Amino acid sequence: MKKYQSANRITAWALAAGAMLMLIAALPAQAATYNYWSLWTASNDKWSPSQVGMNDIKLADQGVVAAKYVSAGEQLTAADAPTQPVAYASLCPNAAAAPSGQVRVAVVIDYGTAVSGATPPANSVNCVTVAEPATASTALNTAATVGASDAGFINTINGYPAASSDSNAVTQPSNHGLKTLWTAIAVGLFALFIIAAVVLVRRKSKADSV
What we know:
There is one protein chain. By secondary structure, this protein is α+β, with helices and mostly antiparallel strands. The chain is 34% helix and 25% strand. It has four helices and nine strands; from the N terminus they run H-E-E-E-E-H-E-E-E-H-E-E-H. Strand 4, helix 2 and strand 5 (102-110) form a beta-alpha-beta unit. Helix 1 (2-26) runs antiparallel to helix 4 (176-209). The longest helix is centred in the last third of the chain and has 34 residues, at 176-209.
């Protein structure tokens, strides 16, 4: 009888501990907030945040692209989007036809979040014409002076923000590594929980057969 009670108690504790560890591993990491230049394109008549750098955003004639300085986490929402219209016709209503081999692009620059101690330039809408094949990089560099990483993620536009003015500025936030770590911990704990449960069941079965 004591053997059965002991085995049951061990099983119960193992189940409780395993459940607790799984819950802890499943808890989301606290979202960090960064200041950075976000990129936006048009999708279904709405601004949509880009997951790639400006080098990889392809633009057709009457395309639109926006760069907005935001204070946000990795996942952008509609609240972070530029306030300007998303339709080319609204941004550049009197644009002339593009010459052969070129496309018309509306470039929105929204300085968004003000950096402490610095005054951002006025927001702007620039109607530019660039050669095909057109990218957001080509359009933005035609409309403004852009500092960016090799991957096309923006550091500054027209010198904003200055390197020394925003200690919380990053080129592109990412907590993918942290998410991967939590996932690995959860999988590892789940595997240990299964192994422990199997061992305990086998021990209990052996005890029952004695």
